[in-house]
Amino acid sequence: PPPNRTEPRFEFGAMPFTQDDFLRDRGVPLDDPEHVRILSLVKPLQAFTIEFINDGPPPERVKTILPAIRALEAEMPAIQKLHSELAQQGVAALLQAADAVLRSKAYVWDNATIEFFKAVLLRLVADPTPARSPETTDQAQDAKEDFNNSAVHIEAAKGIMSLAGVNSRLAGELRPTILKLADDPEDEIRFE
């Protein structure tokens, strides 16, 4: 008689796909000290944004995250020299954290902080492109960067609307920008 065949066995496993894995897949040189330094500034803002994705943070959390937001914003010239994927994530993290902070209903805003957020948001809503890699030439890369720029532009529009919600004076100052965003060809920006 023919020998008995063993039933086939399938084995599989899983491992977490981290942000570092994502960046490595996109070609970001994570061994470079400058990339590591900027990524260390981005991660706390991303964690903060996830923590307060639906609600505004309490005043004590706003106070603790404001220095991190300022530190990342101060690094924008350095971020523009890095890999475009990390630059996009850095700008998005800054905008998302700003939006989350500005949704805080209990925080007492001082003029310097409001002016800081206003300057950052107005600059990024006007030009959301943080950087363009000099080696970028193919159409697929251009399309991906257009999508990323669109996502950053949407985040900037969210931040502008959250800033306008802080007080009526700001809403009045931001009215021309808001009206300009209301005529944007992008549906999601008009929605904001």
Question: What brief labels describe this structure?
Answer:
192 residues; 66% helix; mainly alpha; elongated; single chain
Broad shape: elongated
Rg, Å, rounded: 21 Å
Beta-strand proportion: under 5%
Order of helices and strands: HHHHHHHHH
Number of helices: 9
End-to-end span in angstroms?
74 Å
Main sheet properties: none
Tell me the total number of β-strands. Answer: 0
Structural class of the helices, strands and pairings?
A: mainly alpha
Helix content class: 55-70%
Please, what is the average pLDDT? 86
Q: Which spans have pLDDT < 50 for at least 5 consecutive residues?
A: 131-137
Structural overview:
This protein has 192 residues and is mostly helical. Helix content is 66%, strand content 0%. Residues 131-137 have low confidence and may be disordered.
Q: Secondary structure elements and their pairing?
A:
Elements: H1 19-25, H2 33-51, H3 59-74, H4 76-79, H5 84-102, H6 111-126, H7 139-164, H8 168-182, H9 187-191
Brief characterization of the structure:
The protein is mainly α. It has nine helices and no strands.
